[in-house]
UniProtKB/TrEMBL annotation:
GO terms for biological process, alphabetical: regulation of DNA-templated transcription
CDD domains: RHH_NikR_HicB-like
Top-level taxon: Bacteria
Pfam families the UniProt entry points to: RHH_8 (PF17723)
InterPro entries tied to this protein: Arc_rbn_hlx_hlx, RHH_8, Ribbon_hlx_hlx
Protein name: Arc/MetJ-type ribon-helix-helix transcriptional regulator
Annotated transmembrane regions: none
Gene3D superfamilies: Met repressor-like
Length: 141
């Protein structure tokens, strides 16, 4: 089996990309290389990215229904220090539910995050300082 690292750079979300690793058998990998050599795709990553997007398009209705049912924010949701201070001032506790990228600003102290964030559910990527992630560890699903 060949390991192939894929970095999606064609549609960056919030300026960030995530790496994934997949294992492919030699026949699948050979077929991919053949299609690249024949000019159907510019490289292996282009073919894999296209295949993933095609599958996501096929299942778009299910994704849309699930996002609605689970009350997820679709895309990018960023929380600044000011956002969390405002939540704290109004005695509000946040439930962060995101399909995409959720991020907490680097200047947010762990104590502020712990005081204002009740739960974190992210399907995709969650970016926060190691200290904030540690402070929220029991609340991240």
């Amino acid at each position: 089996m060949a390991n192939l690292k894929l970095v999606d750079t064609s549609r960056p979300k919030g300026g960030e990309t995530e790496k994934i690793t997949i294992n492919l058998g030699p026949i699948d990998l050979g077929q991919i290389d053949l299609l690249v050599e024949e000019g159907f795709y510019s490289n292996r990553t282009d073919l894999i990215r296209t295949a993933i997007r095609n599958q996501l398009a096929i299942h778009a209705q299910v994704v849309t229904e699930t996002v609605t049912r689970r009350a997820l924010v679709l895309g990018l949701q960023h929380f600044s220090k000011q956002d969390l201070e405002a939540a704290q001032a109004s005695s509000e506790r946040l439930d962060i539910h995101v399909l995409g990228l959720a991020s907490i600003a680097a200047d947010v102290p762990p104590e502020l995050a712990a005081a204002t964030i009740a739960s974190v559910v992210v399907l995709g990527a969650f970016h926060a300082s190691p200290a904030v992630k540690a402070a929220l560890a029991g609340r991240i699903r």
